[in-house]
UniProtKB/TrEMBL annotation, chain B:
Protein name: Fe-S cluster assembly ATPase SufC
Family: Belongs to the ABC transporter superfamily. Ycf16 family.
Species per Swiss-Prot/TrEMBL record: Caulobacter zeae
All copies of domain ABC transporter, residue ranges: 2-246
MF-aspect GO terms: ATP binding; ATP hydrolysis activity
Gene3D superfamilies in the record: P-loop containing nucleotide triphosphate hydrolases
Keywords in alphabetical order: ATP-binding, Nucleotide-binding
Amino acid sequence: MSLSTAIENSDLPSRRHEDWRWTDLRGLIRTVPPVSPVFFDVIKSSGPFEGQANAELIIANGRQNWWPGKDAETVEFFEHDAPDNPYDRASLPMAAIAADHAIEPRASIIQFNGDDAASVRFVSATDGTSHHARLGVVVKAGVSAVLLESHEGRGDRYLANTLIEIFLEEGAKLERIVLADDAAEAVAVTTAIVKVAAGATFNQTVLTGGARRQRIETHVAHPGAHAQVRLDGIYLLNAQRHADQTTVVTHGGVDGVTTQLTKGMVADQARGVFQGRIIVAEGADQTDARMGHHALILSDRAEIDAKPELLIFADDVSCAHGNTIGALDEEAVFYARQRGIPELEARAMLTQAFVGEVVERIEHDGAREIAAAWVAKQLGRSEEGGAE
Amino acid sequence: MLSINNLHARVEDKPILKGVTLEVPAGEVHAIMGPNGAGKSTLSYVLSGRGGYEVTEGSASLNGEDLLELEPNERAAKGVFLSFQYPLEIPGVPALTFIRTAVNAQRRARGEDEIAAPAFLKLAKEKAASLKIDFEMLKRGLNVGFSGGEKKRMEIFQMAMLSPKFLILDETDSGLDIDALKIVSEGVNALRSPERGMLVITHYQRLLDYIKPDRVHVLAAGRIVASGGPELALQLEAEGYDKYVGAAA
């Protein structure tokens, strides 16, 4: 399909899709907005991971328009003819739309040839328009890479749809940190399709403050074969923000490890969605998979929808999931207040501590500090532990 | 200093305090003793402002300032410190971070400048050493995995760091062995001063061997039914609370 083919409202997933029942786009978007304009000014600003990577790719309003990085030998950027859309509209509707309607006719590729970090910034600097982008990430065999990915809302009411296809060759390692700072009225969907080879390690941490509707979806094809996958997330939502973290991990072979820990907080009228599915295919014995989702609801009008699923078709596996949703410990809040800490600050401090466990699992030092600072800022606290 | 007058309080519909009147002048340590269910812990919670307690009558003030109108953190900033019978564990918040947050919050509330990190650390090291607290422990989540004695020492450490005007010690001796009791008591005694008042709530006389009170009050069925000098505590230890329970009912 070409860009000229209009996207219809009926192309968007609705609550009739079981996997989209809590993140209905069709009911929200009556008319798909027009294509976003070109935006050049983004090079004047820096992203949240500034200084952490030598190489930087910016995709603004769906267009890959600048890569000011030093283009080291370890990280290579290039364009590639986009392959035909392999995605099924029924199971991966937004990925299929991105593949069909990406603004750039050729896909951007980041290839790690040696150990390094790269940042990729998806900037939405537009109002009331839509853009679709497609990015490929390749980590060559045995290479250890870090992908620092930011989604930066500089406008509002945009529809941003991003497809990222990640290939980890044998023995490769990738740590992907996603920091999603979308605008309050934006609709943003990011779908990552991750293919992991034998002995490879894929570690991911998603940090999000949500949007009008936002979904960050990750599909991992896990070969078993001593490969390791970690999928973590933090969502901190207030006002009427919505964030959906959906993951699907398919263990296709023996001897694979998956660990997942997502923690979140919803206040006001916000809504957090966690859908985690781990599939252990027939014969994928010795799979070790653990999933945890734990969330705090700080208001009567906030909502969390959680659906942890383990679908196990093999016999000899170790799989577990835990899912808890509750309020802050009021005893602890009183204890902090008795020491002189005002109520809001006490609640923010305890929430920060609650999600801190996920931050601590980030391996990249710089990204971990940025994540900790983002959590503090999102909760209205300074990094030093005092109020701002 | 602390002035409590005809204080009545209830939890849900159950009256617990039924007219407590008590004056603790600056520089004095008063002990409140009493049988289980007398309202000892309720008194400490009402003074510190915990939710769930409704004051139906009476007043409580510190240096003439009405405490009951203030939020718990405002009371803390005015100088009220409650040492908890069961200190909370706060995973993910290192003890030092927690205490520095509290110190700075109190300073801000009083219109003072925040304490600088080097000054704070120096003070923390001094106070930790005097309470035989391993400084490394202060970098771990507050009270997480600490023994009962360590938690109580951490309460005293916070007291020393916050330097409150008025201390309420709620059953500080519970769960302590004799060595821990000595360390904790020494820590409390180090805070005795002519400007500071203390209310020591305890079920047993044992604590008062180490923290010598100026006055002892017996709380039974929500009222103070007897007051006297330190000898009253010894008498209670010998005779038990029976006659007061009967008298109050």
